[in-house]
């Protein structure tokens, strides 16, 4: 039994560690977007990241010497494509941020929906046009995390460590900006600088997630953990703890489920995230109906 477990661990080690990393960091990024009421932005940005990934696959044969030199040093294709995924996500964040600054009340949701449609169309066109896309596109975009090797894991860990360090370092200004930008300015924070930092951190996190677990799971990790946590949390610290618990728990539990069902990894955690959300909804509903909760509410009135 122990030999069999060791065999499976050797097979999925990099994937398990990578999924745990994105399962912790991406929900925190999603929590920030949720608090800023920009959740719909999280729909368009991963799709732009996927379009950038498709662009990299399309360009690959056109720079064959550069790509061959890249592979000669032992780097997997994911590292070559990572810059395209991150760059496209950051560019989309910057573009929509500029639009929001110039016309903050002018059809923001419609612009994001249009951006999602354009990004999807571009991804499909680049994938169809690129002769090098076929062998890699389906596995990467579906989130075949088993393809990740030690080089890719190290690169992803470094990127997500930067994102997590940034979220911790600027957590108070980011939270203040989410609730009251004018108060952040009054306290001496540079709102444009904070916006740029958020663009950089979100772009890095989304790009890393799309490259390793695919856009589908990135959507799930950005949206569902904050939604579940909000149903039971009454304080900010509790909210963030629940966000991490839901995100990391779903990606870890998905491994035995995925292996047992012989199913692609990417969609399985999303289904488990939905299950977590339903459990949290039931938990929150029971807590609101409990006598202790009623007494606490009446005592605060």
List the helices and strands and how they pair.
Elements: H1 2-35, H2 41-59, H3 64-72, H4 77-102, H5 108-129, H6 133-141, H7 150-169, H8 171-179, H9 181-186, H10 191-230, H11 236-261, H12 267-289, H13 291-300
Helix pairs in contact: 1-7, 1-10, 1-11, 2-4, 2-5, 2-6, 2-10, 4-10, 7-10, 10-11, 10-12, 11-12
- The oligomeric state is single chain
Number of domains: 1
Mean pLDDT: 79
Secondary-structure element order, N to C: HHHHHHHHHHHHH
Shape: globular
Total number of β-strand segments? 0
Q: Helix amount, in percent?
A: over 70%
Low-pLDDT windows of residues: 297-301
Distance between the termini: 59 Å
CATH C-level category:
Mainly Alpha
How many whole angstroms does the radius of gyration measure? 20 Å
CATH topology grouping: ABC transporter involved in vitamin B12 uptake, BtuC
Largest sheet: none
Q: Structural class from helices and strands?
A: mainly alpha
* Proportion in β-strands: under 5%
Helices, by number, come to: 13
Task: Assign the CATH architecture.
Answer: Orthogonal Bundle
CATH superfamily: ABC transporter involved in vitamin B12 uptake, BtuC
């Amino acid at each position: 039994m122990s030999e069999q477990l060791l065999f499976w661990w050797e097979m999925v080690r990099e994937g398990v560690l990578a999924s745990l990393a994105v399962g912790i960091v991406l929900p925190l990024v999603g929590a920030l977007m949720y608090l800023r009421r920009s959740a719909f932005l999280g729909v368009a940005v991963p799709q732009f990241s996927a379009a950038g990934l498709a662009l990299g696959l399309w360009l690959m044969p056109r720079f064959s010497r550069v790509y061959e030199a890249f592979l000669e040093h032992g780097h997997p294709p994911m590292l070559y494509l990572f810059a395209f995924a991150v760059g496209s996500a950051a560019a989309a964040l910057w573009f929509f941020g500029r639009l929001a600054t110039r016309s903050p009340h002018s059809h923001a949701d419609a612009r994001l929906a249009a951006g999602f449609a354009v990004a999807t169309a571009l991804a499909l066109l680049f994938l169809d046009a690129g002769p090098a896309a076929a062998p890699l596109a389906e596995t990467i975009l579906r989130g075949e995390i088993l393809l990740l090797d030690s080089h890719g894991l190290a690169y992803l860990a470094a990127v997500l460590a930067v994102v997590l360090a940034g979220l911790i370092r600027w957590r108070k200004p980011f939270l203040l900006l989410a609730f009251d930008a004018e108060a952040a300015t009054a306290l001496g924070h540079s709102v444009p600088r904070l916006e740029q930092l958020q663009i950089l951190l979100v772009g890095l996190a989304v790009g890393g997630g799309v490259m390793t677990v695919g856009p589908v799971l990135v959507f799930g990790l950005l949206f569902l953990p904050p939604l579940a946590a909000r149903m039971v949390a009454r304080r900010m610290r509790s909210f963030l703890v629940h966000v991490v618990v839901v995100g990391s728990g779903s990606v870890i539990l998905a491994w035995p489920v995925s292996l047992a069902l012989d199913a692609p990894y990417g969609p399985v955690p999303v289904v488990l995230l939905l299950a977590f959300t339903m459990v949290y909804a039931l938990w929150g509903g029971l807590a609101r109906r409990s006598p202790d909760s009623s007494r606490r509410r009446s005592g605060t009135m």
